[in-house]
Amino acid sequence: MPTEAAELVFDEATKQYPGRPEPAVDRLSLTVAAGEICVLVGPSGGGKTTALKLVNRLIPLSSGDIRIDGTSIADHDVTELRRSIGYVIQQVGLFPHMTVAANVATVPRLLGWPRARIRARVAELLELVGLDPAADGGRYPAALSGGQQQRVGLARALAADPPILLMDEPFAAVDPIVRAHLQAELRRLHREVGKTILFVTHDLDEALGLGDRVAIFRQGGVLAQYDTPDTVLAAPADEFVRRFVGEDRALRRLALRRLGDLELAADGGDPDAPVVSTAMTARNAVSLMLDAGATEVRVVGDDGSPAGVLRLDDLRELLA
Question: What fold does the segment set 8-253 form as a domain?
Answer without folding.
Answer: Rossmann fold (3.40.50)
